[in-house]
Each structure stands twice: as C-alpha cells, then as structure tokens.
Amino acid sequence: MDHNIPWPFLPSGALDLSDDTFREMARSYPIVSPVRELRSSLSKLRLNELTVGADGRNRCLLSAFAAKTSRNQPSNAKFIFGPSVWLRGLIKPPPGKALAYLDYEQQEFGIAAALSKDPAMMQAYLTGDSYLAFAMQAGAVPADATKKTHKAERDKFKVCALAALYGIGPQSLGQRVGDTVARGRQLLDRHHRTYPQYWEWSDSVLNTAMLRGFLQASFGWTLHVGPEVKANTLRNFRVAAWPPRPTSPSAPRSTTRCSPTPQSGNWSASAESGI
Fold first, then answer.
1. Can you give the pLDDT of all 275 residues of the chain as single tens digits?
2. At what angle do helices 119-126 and 130-137 cross, to 10 degrees?
3. Helix/strand/coil for 202
4. Residue 130 and residue 121: Cα distance in Å, rounded?
5. Which residues pair with 223 in a beta bridge?
6. Which of 218, 260, 224 is nearest to 240 (CA)?
7. How far apart are CA 198 and CA 143, in angstroms?
8. Does residue 232 sit in helix, strand or coil?
9. Strand partners, 224
10. Which of 53, 121, 231, 236 is the most exposed place for a label (fewest CB within 10 A)?
C-alpha cells in the first residue's frame, strides 16, 4: 500500500533513516510509529547495560544538572527510561505494592503563558486543553469543537504550540504536521497573531541574552551565551529551565505532596518532569 509519505533525503540522495528522522516522521504520520519503535527497540535490546542490582532495582548516575536547563541526563543505556517506551513494562512493583507514573499535563505551554503573562495564552491553558483552545482562538475550529470531533486540527495546533516555544521554522513545522511549508508558515502566523504578548516576551528574552551574555531561570540557574548557543535555545531556556525537579532548588516547595510519607508512599525515581 502506498501511503505517499514525503520522506526526507540526505545530501547524497539516499533516504534519511536516522532515528531522529523516524521520530519526527512518526509524529506527523502515526503509521510510521510502529516501524520506528521496532527499529529503535532492535538497536537497544542490549539490556545487559541496564544497571540492575541484586535487589532488582535500577540504579545509575542521574547526572544531575548536566543539561543546559539544569535537567538530569542519565545514560539511555543504563536507565530504564532511556530505551523504547514498551520496555518500561519491565518495571514491576514487589508483591503487595503498586507503582504510579505521575507527570504534568501541558506544562510547558502553561509556563510560557505564566512567564509572558499573555492573557490569551493563559486563558487557553485554563480551559484544560490548551491546544484545542489555541485552534479555537485562531479560528481554525468552531467553539463547540472537541478533541474527538476535531482531532486532526487539534494535533496540528498542538505541534505548533509546543514547537513555537523554541522558534521552529515553517519548513520544519510543515514537515512535522505532515503538510507543506505554506501550512507551517500559516500555523506560525496564527500563533504570532493569537499570542502577540508571548512573542514580545520571547523577543525580549533573546535580546536580553545577547546584550548581557547570559540568562537566568526563575530559581537562578544560569545559561552563559557562547558561540555554540543557538537563538532557539535562548528563546526556550526560561520555559524549559523553570519546571521544578527533585534536584532543583525549588524541589522542597514543589514536591511536598510527593515526599515519602506513610500516606503517599515512596518516591522511586524522577524522569523529565514526572515522578
């Protein structure tokens, strides 16, 4: 069956079969996702590198603060959250215990709205579905649209809403949503028109970084501007560096309810912005 998927090529003319390309294409074309998962899984089945002790626990160096945004960067080969998602099925609680994976929902969109104080962006976040609200605000779907009735449009506006935070271009955005460069440009234009205050704030962040030579996140984490730091990294830095994590200075304030207690249980591990 011919699915007419516009696959990227390498400068040599050969198909780009890198995992990054498969990941991007899987976002635009869900039918690619199983193939990508299979390729990724087969390449990462050397589970002997997972650091599992005699007690069945996976312990490895989390490399706290290794990322520019202060996030952890554990080894993908040694940490169970590194390989393909389906391998997380290997995580099992002992008898009489249960495990839960808790993560923030639409976190970065909400942080961008709060930091920029864009009223339309904050209103979209407070609806509970920022991406569908964005599509409504942009006039792409009717006011009574739902996630089920307008899934395709919501998915495209979700990609745009997140990718716009780090300054994606129209060509890359068009490819991500499985459409043309013109469509990518149209989506970005709608984001600019819908959230003008956010873009004023984003521009000011970039200008501040270039003038001062550094940026600071809400809790003091600093990014120094060097020749290797891209403008898109600077635009997204304060959003990406804000979320409190177990290793961040804000952890005692933000994770009180998740601290080990007889009522809440034990905190086993952190992964990105989840626990």
1. 677 788 888 989 899 988 888 888 887 788 888 888 888 777 766 677 888 888 888 888 888 877 787 777 888 888 888 777 777 888 888 888 888 888 778 889 999 999 999 999 999 999 999 999 999 999 999 999 999 999 999 999 999 999 999 889 999 899 888 888 999 999 999 999 999 999 999 999 999 999 999 988 877 888 899 888 888 888 988 888 876 554 444 443 333 333 344 455 677 777 666 67
2. 130
3. helix
4. 8
5. 215
6. 218
7. 23
8. helix
9. 214
10. 53
Q: What would the two tokens of residue 183 be?
A: 């469509």
Indicate yes or no: pTM above 0.85: no
Separation between Cα atoms, residue 138 and residue 192, nearest integer Å: 10
Exposure string over 37-74, b if 16+ CB within 10 A, otherwise e: eeebeeebeeeeebebeeeeebebebebeeebbbbbeb
What is the secondary structure of 8-25 as a DSSP string? -B-TTSSB---HHHHHHH
